[in-house]
Amino acid sequence: MQVSKLPIFFSHVSDALYNAPDEVRRLFHGRGRVYPGLEQITCDWVDSQLLINVFKPVEEAFIEALKAGIDTLSQTDSWCAKGVTCAAIQHRYLDGAPLEVVFGELNDKPIVIESGLKYQLNIGRNQNFGLFLDMRLGRDWVKSHASNKRVLNLFSYTCGFSVAAIEGGATQVVNVDMARASLNKGRDNHRLNGQNLSQVKFLAYDIFKSWGKIRKLGPYDLVVIDPPSFQKGSFALSKDYIRILRRLPELLAERGKVLACVNSPQVSGDFLITSMQEAAPQIGYQSRLDNPAEFSDIDSDAALKVMLFEHHPETT
């Protein structure tokens, strides 16, 4: 990355900050490669805090210029108008992704709002703080299409899709994730929103060893699949995704929908379409959801792909 490009970063952050809603938001997305020389930096607005992530090693001069720019930004009208309480840099390229506070005092467990729903975050303990902001429109879609639906949420993480589904009127959501700690955070997210936990199940399962148990709780009107691109020992997108798609016909109700996601820049949206045609031809492709405008990317196939499918068993 280039020190000479940091004025562009701060200009965009200042404008985005001034116009930011009172919700969690990405303010600058260098990883979309729209801003040459700033490809490995992002900035998020999180409960009156600016969280800047640097993803690849940079020269010390870059970090020093970044800190100086934060100091200058702290004296602007945008900063004062929004009441910024903290600015921090997370060095994602270092072991443990350490967080360096450069202004104010960090609230490492903020409760944030997205589309009117509350989520508990955990900043600085992990690379990800508990909510993937590029999936905002996916959660919005689920909320608006969940009424009276039974929903299966695979790789549920902290259950953002589940919270959105219950808010949208889902009758039941089944969350499946190997990480019990993430499911516990998901349970907290449901409680934050005053939702009825009797409508929600939290299954700390290895999906590939638990299809029978998952199937018994169906059939499902909507299945959400949002896996990691790679998880050592448990999931490799290129070979394991199709194993999930093959199971969908036995999980879905007639006309049931699938929201399938891929967030690897090496895999295009066509991967999901062709894999579905091969694994479950009775489940047809419908459309691709837009990503939030703040996540603009010079290559749509390198960005998050959120694809919608529908089950038509009569086509088998």
UniProtKB/TrEMBL annotation:
SUPFAM superfamilies referenced in this protein's UniProt entry, alphabetically: S-adenosyl-L-methionine-dependent methyltransferases (SSF53335)
One record GO biological process: rRNA processing
Keyword rRNA processing: yes
UniProt-listed Enzyme Commission number(s): 2.1.1.191
UniProt key word rRNA processing: yes
One Gene Ontology MF term: methyltransferase activity
Keyword entries, A-Z: Methyltransferase, rRNA processing, S-adenosyl-L-methionine, Transferase
Domain S-adenosylmethionine-dependent methyltransferase span(s) in chain numbering: 25-309
Protein name: Ribosomal RNA large subunit methyltransferase I
Annotated organism of origin: Vibrio aquimaris
Lineage of the organism: Bacteria, Pseudomonadati, Pseudomonadota, Gammaproteobacteria, Vibrionales
